[in-house]
Amino acid sequence: MTGASTHLVPTGAVLGGTAALGVLLVVTRLRRRRPTLVARVAPGLRSWSAVSRLLDEDPVTTPFAVLERLVAPWSTDVGRGLERFGSSRADVERRLARAGRRDTVEQFRARQLVAGAVGLALGLAVAVLLVVVRGASVVPALLLVVVAGVAGVLLCDQNLSRQVRTREERILAEFPTVAELLALAVTAGEAPVGALDRVARTAHGALADELSAALAAVRSGTPLSRALEELADRVGLAPVTRFADGVAVAVERGTPLADVLRAQAQDVREAGRRALLEAGGRKEVGMMVPVVFLVLPVTVAFAVFPSLATLRVGM
Fold first, then answer.
1. Rounded distance, CA 174 to CA 272, Å?
2. What's this model's pTM, rounded to 2 decimal places?
3. Is residue 287 assigned to a domain?
């Protein structure tokens, strides 16, 4: 018993000293954290938004939002490396604007970094499984991990390009209707700015959002022609550029605007029909594949099988 007590004394002393040191640190920290006058007054002077975060127009939809915030400090260095092998900063900014996203380049680079990390993790899991189960070599397994990481980064970039194409298609689909609504409002006696405001408030879609952004710039003091020019630069589509130029010229020179808008809407519809016919011509060969390799063999089998059955019965 004496030996056991001798061994317990140092252990108890260490535990007691550690606990006392922890209590001392907590008490010292609490004394140092006395709130100052600025800290007490600041919450009452801070402006809070009356809109709930649940109603945010651009909520975070990625399941890795916390991870993106953790890797954000390294996004600048990663972005410099990606600019050497991929898209530049200016190109990313342009595509983010054309996609209608409010993310900054640093946030997009952080998202790319997260996608690359997820790709590396998946590639590492597959590589370990192949090495352990199949006995694969280490070099191909490491190559698989690197390829998976690069694929994650590239897929994030390709997803942004796909969002740009999807939004451009929506804008082209909405443009004829928006142009005709503007022409109707101008014909009814509305001024160009008032017609734009009315259409932006009543319509819903990507083009209506762009018109709302242009009107916000006009209300802040930007000339209408300049705001429409910025809209055309953001969208990057030829019909929208012609629309901006037509409205700017009509406002500056007083030319009739309704006829110009109707003509532009008709041109976009004709361009859509031509694009649809061209897409159908390109898909014609693809549509022949199931006919030749699926429908035709089944038809031949149904035609030949009764004859073969009759010949077997006759023999």
1. 12
2. 0.62
3. no
